[in-house]
Design a protein that fits this description.
The protein is of the alpha+beta class. The protein is built from 2 helices and 4 strands.
Length: about 80
């Protein structure tokens, strides 16, 4: 299992989700993608996308006033 980091701070929605989808396509089963973002809409869009695709969210933290990090595992 490997951990990959995707930094999307400064990007407006839907780009953090678009980039997460692209990055996840390249990962092996069991790998985790740590996504850093500051788009408030992504706080709902990314977990919903993960759930819809059967990807467990293993961590979701607020890292600042308007920034978050979420870890999604490819299953």
């Amino acid at each position: 299992m490997a951990t990959h980091v995707l930094e999307t701070e400064g990007q407006v929605c839907p780009f953090p989700l678009v980039e997460a989808k692209q990055a996840m396509a390249d990962l092996a089963i069991g790998d985790e993608l740590v996504i850093g973002f500051d788009c408030t809409q992504a706080t709902e869009a990314i977990p919903t996308w993960a759930a819809d695709n059967g990807y467990p969210v293993t961590n979701f933290d607020r890292t600042g006033n308007a920034s978050w990090t979420i870890t999604v595992q490819k299953a």
